Amino acid sequence: MKKIFFILAAAAMVACQGNNPVNPEEDKNTTFDKARYFEILGTNTVPNVEGENSDQPFTMDSVRAEVLITTDSTVSVNLYQINFSSKMPVTIDMTIPDVAFSRLTNGIVLSGDSIIPMMGTRPVDRYLISHLDGSLTADSFRIVNNYGPYQGCIYAGAVTKMLESN
Description:
mainly beta; Porin; 8-stranded antiparallel beta barrel; two-stranded antiparallel sheet; 10 strands; globular
């Protein structure tokens, strides 16, 4: 009986290890200047939207994001499983494409106007981002933007991974 228990325990440990594959592209020596891909874990906050958020900001924790430097002057921001209101029945994955950026000594500054976000390959005009400001450093990421009727939305989080490519 003990042999069967140890065999099952060993099999379970091997199975669990199989769920966490090692990423061969991950470079522990990647510096901010070399990185072109960033993973972030943060909070999405939407100020009160009359009639939607019960007169309080709507906050969603543990929202995963990715920032990809796509050209020498633009990034793409992916936000996963977010929503904007307590009345929104589902979460969505959203991409904010072609956000302009400029480099500073210790990070980059993001900005943009009239950006149409994407859900998959489909543009979503009703969430037109009329204005976006933000910053990215080796430690943190923050954007403030206006998604259609949702004005002054803030996503802020900690950078959890940097890679030279994704």
